[in-house]
Amino acid sequence: MAKEETLPQPVSTMTPAQLERRRRLTDTVIEMIDQMGPEQLQMRDVAERSGVALGTAYRYFSSKDHLLAAAWADWQRRLTDRVRAEVSRDASRNRSAPGGACTRVQAFLSRETRAFQRHPNFARLVAYVEVSSDPFASEELAGLRSDNFATLVALMDGVPADVVRPAMTAINATLGSGLTAWICGRLTFADFSRQLEEVVRLILGPYDQA
Predict the structure, then answer these.
(1) Could you give all domains of the chain from N- to C-terminal order, each with its CATH number?
(2) Staple partner for 61: which of 19, 66, 79, 112, CB 3.0–4.6 Å?
(3) Predicted local confidence at residue 87, as pLDDT
């Protein structure tokens, strides 16, 4: 079909009105994902609920996978901004309490994973978009990974550079596999949280303040 052959319009070239319509589409996905899994969500339903024409939706997103990846990236960035603010606020209130990279990363990941516990369909969305073959969905995920990397690097202030990258690899692998195992019923949320905490403590524990 023609809509599958047409490349989506780059975000950098969109007008404010186009960006607003694009945002309505991703916001609608975020609302709908809380009510249904990503497999059940359809582009036509998103367009209708958002008030954006289906043809317009396909000018902004190459496929359902592209739209879901963009919505997931928006949700994750909002969550990250909120959690970073909470961690920073708590650190300011408890300046006398010991803590370093391990404490900061643990606090950040604990809040983020609890958000998935409250909204399990977003964990299902992560698993869904991570295996997508859509190149534009992959671009969205690459941008999100870059942002997440920068966030964790900032939280790992004081950790040697040659430790940061393998730490990121281990933490992200544990987080990703744990979320998938949890939503598939192979792991309880408590065990998932414990495994993630153990990995963080093993790698970053030596860099916490005594």
Answers:
(1) 64-207 (1.10.357.10)
(2) 66
(3) 78
